[in-house]
Design goal:
The protein is α/β, with parallel strands linked by helices and about 775 residues long. The protein is about 35% helix and about 20% strand. Strands 23-24-25-26-27-28-30-29 form an eight-stranded mixed sheet, sandwiched between helices. A seven-stranded mixed sheet has the order 5-4-7-6-8-9-10, with helices on both faces.
């Protein structure tokens, strides 16, 4: 109450207490209804047993948001959530410390100090940790755009907050301390959408079994498998760090320097020991010490003393002056096989820390396409150099091993983001074709069986195009490498796929990696690359692969399709899967089903929505032709390039409300995002004729509303044939399935054909370009 009264947010505070006694000299009310004025936000600070009644009172008064500071609500959570949802009221908590909005001055927390204004959002599941971070931030002069405690996330969760902050112009990066995921699908969907715009950096508590138990006790929510969570972060472009310090180091670094293209780091140092320590930290974290070319070595020979290290780290010796540093840095940055640079300065008699920092200024503010990190070790004049670097926008660390660790985080972050929109090479046209798998699984469950026989398991795999063992003696011995492919169900993320070494080797070395379905060939390749066995399968550098890696990618895609389309399966183990350069086939397989006591509606679902086969169909055009209609796939990017080549300037102008050149429309970064969709947020239906795309209709949810916006583009050769109407009719059914209540669009007055289609479909037009369709 004191914090709200002293906050400069400019609103009115109404104390509500049954005794109606003044609070801190402010008139109190016996109920919210007695206030007689609209209330925007309620802070519920009562005992657990009183929370449902307080929420009901807020709902009746039309309050749209509430922070629940009290805990002890577990037994009545369903009741509280039902009350809130019926009233369209959002709840933060229970067990929430509250939230601060530094920009507006609102301090709706029990913490006395107010956070400074800044561009970093900090979200935490621990109020005590948040208090400590706030105390540190005030001393370090770190500011925040938002500062919120989520509590046990009965209603508002990570997905809601990430969505909001993704659209917040004041927020440049999002930092999270997490103990449990909550709604996994909402979190992954929001994170994947926002990660390309703003870094999402997570410190996850509960890595070890004792810590996981403590997290469950603290948050009241299951902590889930840490290994699966790491796979989920990789899949959505989220960066996971291991310490509180690294949360803020990475937020600072990613806003100042470009992301590296790869893992190769060059190190320039005036002292051998720090360079060695940085290299150790780099390599142990998965990075590589860049190999300098002979041309670079010759250039360095010309500007450095004869005693320099002649390799990476580039030891330019203890008497290095700012000019020597500058020349060595320029040569290292120019190297094509260098992805990033670390410059180390250790104080020695001839060291000019401040002057050397001044020479580093050209490498600030993303002027180069490679990140430049520094480590100025020591105090005194060295501290002055660190200040110059910080003011210039060059990240500077006390210790070189810290800087190397941050570089490793940077390239891993780049790697994860690239995986979001790499165009896959294979789209399985048989998606949704179950063959004999459906009746076999239904029969087994009807009989009350939970374990299929070996032959039955192989028949299910074969129905999805996965090759089973070859007939005849000796087939297994000729199979090549023994691999493992499997699936299980995680309590938070649903089905999970495993790949790794199989047989006795797999048992001994535990070499496996995990991924969330659905997979495409890009994601399947990345799943394999996470294992040690992949290097053996791929062969030595420049040598022929020792296993059919392309076939393995396709096999994993089909396996993920099986896992998603058959939720009655609880576990699959293929061990061994024999792999050679010539063939792949299943040696042994075992499938375990959920028991008959688990009804269909309670079967686990994937945390990432699979390809929506329910929207696959066809349409007959006025000219008698039939075209196929289906949701777009990531593999469609090459077809989309060709489709855009069929469009006239008029069609392009009507669609984009302006001129857009073909080379701009078909760049990879743009088309990949249009093809690689989160089907819970966007839907694009394509029409195909003769294997080529001839039209695209797209529907996008409008965040925070029950509305969606559509767009339509038809190849000029098929305009006027009823194709647009057919696509939109199907697209609007998607909107109904999503629970939308209206569809909107912006249509130019000159786009006569599109406006006619919309009128026939029931749209009303307002202003000059707006069109709205109410869904019933």
């Amino acid at each position: 109450m004191s914090n709200l009264l002293t906050s400069p947010f400019g609103g009115t505070v109404f104390p509500v207490d049954a005794a109606a006694a003044p609070v801190l000299g402010v008139k109190s009310y016996a109920s919210i209804a007695a206030i007689g004025e609209p209330v925007d936000l309620a802070v519920i600070a009562t005992a657990g047993a009183e929370i449902p009644g307080a929420v009901r009172e807020c709902a009746a008064a039309g309050v749209r948001g509430a922070i629940i500071a009290g805990a002890g609500l577990l037994e009545r959570e369903d009741e509280v959530l039902r009350i809130a949802r019926e009233a369209q009221m959002r709840l933060l908590g229970p067990g929430s410390l509250g939230m601060m909005c530094p920009e507006t001055g609102l301090n709706a927390t029990s913490v006395g100090a107010m956070a400074r204004k800044g561009d970093v959002a900090f979200l935490s599941q621990s109020g005590a940790l948040q208090t400590a971070i706030l105390d540190w931030s005030l001393q370090a002069k770190v500011g925040f755009s938002a500062f919120a405690s989520v509590g046990s996330m009965l209603d508002v969760g990570w997905g809601d907050l990430i969505d909001y902050l993704g659209n917040d112009g004041r927020t440049r990066s999002i930092l999270i301390y997490m103990e449990s995921v909550g709604d996994a699908r909402a979190f992954l969907s929001a994170a994947r959408e926002v990660a390309l715009q703003k870094p999402i950096i997570v410190l996850k508590g509960g890595r070890t079994e004792p810590a996981a138990r403590a997290a469950v006790s603290h948050s009241g929510r299951t902590a889930g498998s840490d290994e699966v969570l790491t796979a989920a972060f990789r899949r959505t472009g989220v960066l996971r760090v291991d310490s509180i310090a690294d949360l803020f180091f990475m937020a600072d670094t990613l806003t100042k320097q470009p992301r590296p293209r790869g893992r190769r780091l060059a190190i320039v140092t005036n002292a051998g020991g720090p360079g060695v320590l940085a290299t150790d930290a780099l390599v142990s974290g998965g990075g590589e010490a860049a190999t300098l070319s002979s041309a670079a070595l010759s250039r360095l020979d010309a500007v450095l003393p004869p005693q320099w290290s002649r390799g990476n780290p580039v030891d330019i010796l203890g008497d290095a002056d700012p000019e020597r540093y500058a020349k060595a840095i320029e040569i290292a940055v120019d190297e094509p096989d260098v992805d990033g640079l670390l410059v180390i300065l250790a104080p020695q008699d001839a060291t000019q820390a401040a002057a050397t920092a001044e020479r580093m200024k050209p490498y600030a503010r993303r002027r180069f396409d490679k990140p430049v990190l520094t480590s100025w070790m020591g105090s005194g004049e060295v501290a002055a150099g660190r200040g110059i670097l910080a003011e210039s926008g060059i990240p500077c660390f006390w210790y070189p091993d810290t800087a190397a660790r941050i570089f490793n985080y940077m390239w891993k972050y780049s790697y994860n983001l690239r995986g979001l929109y790499e165009t896959p090479a294979f789209g399985d046209e048989n998606a949704g074709a179950h063959g004999e798998a459906d009746p076999l699984l239904r029969s087994a469950r009807a009989e009350g069986r939970t374990v299929l026989t070996g032959p039955e398991s192989k028949r299910v795999l074969a129905a999805y195009g996965i090759p089973v063992d070859l007939p005849g003696p000796g087939a297994a011995r000729e199979g090549g490498f023994e691999l493992l492919v499997g699936s299980t169900v995680d309590p938070q993320f649903g089905p999970v796929i495993a790949f790794g070494a199989g047989g006795v080797v797999g048992e001994a070395y535990k070499d496996r990696s995990l991924a969330l379905p659905p997979l495409n060939t890009t994601l399947a390749r990345r799943l394999m690359q996470q294992t040690r066995i992949h290097g053996v399968l791929a062969g030595n550098a420049g040598a022929r692969a020792r296993a059919d890696l392309t076939g393995l990618e396709k096999l994993l895609v089909r396996f993920s399709q099986l896992v998603l389309e058959q939720p009655a399966i609880r576990e699959i183990e293929i061990d061994p899967l024999f792999a050679s350069a010539e063939r792949l086939f299943v040696g042994n397989a075992r499938i375990v089903l959920h028991g008959p006591d688990v009804p269909a509606e309670r079967l686990p679902r994937s945390a990432i929505r699979p390809y929506p086969v329910e929207y696959v169909g066809s349409a007959k055009l006025k000219n008698g032709e039939t075209v196929s209609i289906r949701p777009i796939r990531p593999e469609d990017e090459p077809k989309m390039v060709r489709f855009h080549g069929t469009l006239s300037e008029e069609s392009v102008y009507n669609r984009y409300a302006g001129v857009m050149r073909l080379d701009t429309r078909v760049v990879h970064e743009r088309l990949s995002r249009m093809c690689f969709l989160d089907y819970d947020r966007q839907m694009a239906l394509v029409a195909e004729r003769g294997g080529e795309i001839v039209a695209v209709a797209r529907l996008v949810r409008l965040s925070g509303t029950r509305a969606g916006e559509f767009a339509l583009l038809v190849s000029d050769a098929l305009q006027g044939q009823g194709l647009g109407t057919a696509l939109l009719t199907r697209l609007f059914q998607v909107g109904r399935d999503w629970g939308l209540d209206r569809i909107v669009a912006e249509i130019l007055p000159g786009n006569v054909a599109m406006r006619q289609i919309c009128r026939r479909l029931g749209f009303t037009f307002e202003a000059e370009t707006g069109a709205t369709l109410l869904l019933r």
